[in-house]
Amino acid sequence: MTETVLLFCLAGVLGLAVGSFLNVVIYRVPRGESLVRPGSHCPHCDSAVRPRHNVPVLGWLLLRGRCADCRTPISVRYPLVEAGTAALFVAVGARFGWSWELPAYLYLAAVAIALALIDLDVMRLPDKIVLPSYAVAVALLVPVSLAAGDLSAVIRGLVAAVALYVFYLVISFWGMGGGDVKLAPLLGFYLGWLGWGAVAIGAFAGFLLGGLVGAVLLALKLASRKSKIPFGPYMLAGAFLAVFAATPLGDWYSNLLVAPTL
Q1: What angle do CA 183, 140, 234 make, to 5 degrees?
Q2: Helix (H, G, I), strand (E, B) or coil at 73
Q3: What pLDDT does 251 receive?
Q4: CA dihedral 120, 124, 127, 131 (to 10 degrees)
Q5: Phi and psi of 217, rounded to 5°?
Q6: What local confidence, expressed as pLDDT, does residue 260 receive?
Q7: Which of 129, 86, 99 is nearest to 236 (CA)?
Q8: Which helix or strand (DSSP H or E) is residue 75 part of?
Q9: Percent of the chain with pLDDT over 90
Q10: C-alpha–C-alpha distance, residues 28 and 164, integer Å
Q11: Cα distance between residue 43 and residue 46, in whole Å
């Protein structure tokens, strides 16, 4: 019990810190700006953000959502990203516990938040984030298999990555974006590592969520049939639905197939 509480606390604190950095990534990467220089500053008056105001969530509350110098409103999305990242990190910690797989899926969680919000902002999944994530996934997960002396999860992940790449490449001829095609193998590798059930649920859930949201937007006349809707957030949401729910959903489906005993 104590170890679990410690894991949740560490994951939450790490999530807050990573979420603060993700706000920088989400703002600067689409603009081609450096993530290092200059330091955190107000985009309106260029005043440097004071260290005490850089504390995740609390800094925004302390400032009451306004720049300390020019009083320009600061979007509420900043603390929401920080708190949301912390919550997702805790959930990933609960899913994997103290395991060697945990860092890999924490990284995926961070990348998912950054990519989803960038795609919503500019309808693009930057190569600067997606492509290096392949190397990170391999570096974090392959040694786990090597240490266990079992490469089946790696092989399954690679096969799933290729399968999803081919699938998305084919449907790209009917309008799927190139960024989605590049993201698909990354998600395939992570989901394939968990099992084929996770791959099937993750892929299906992405299209289901995208279709449902699209239908709602059409019904509310917030979009038309010609409107471009970023698909990356739904791919990522579907993948994490599979990460958390593939096992219980698989068990539930298996129980349906088992004839009841008298």
Answers
A1: 25
A2: strand
A3: 64
A4: 60
A5: -60, -40
A6: 55
A7: 129
A8: none
A9: 68
A10: 29
A11: 5
Interatomic CA distance for residues 111 and 26, integer angstroms: 10
pTM for this entry: 0.92
* CA-CA-CA-CA torsion sign (79, 85, 89, 91): positive
CA atoms within 13 A on the CB side of 86: 17
Extract the tokens encoding 194: 């968990």
Give the integer Cα–Cα distance in Å for 252 and 256.
6
Instruction: Please say whether the beta carbons of 88 and 8 come within 8 A.
Output: no
pLDDT for the residue 127: 95
**Structure-token match 């919550």, residue found:** 87
List phi, psi (to 5°) of 232.
-55, -45
Predicted confidence at residue 247, as pLDDT, reads 76
- For 48, the 3-state DSSP assignment is strand
Question: What residue type is assigned to position 253 of the chain?
Answer: Y
Q: Which residues of the chain have pLDDT under 70?
A: 250-262
Enumerate the β-bridge partners of residue 48.
41
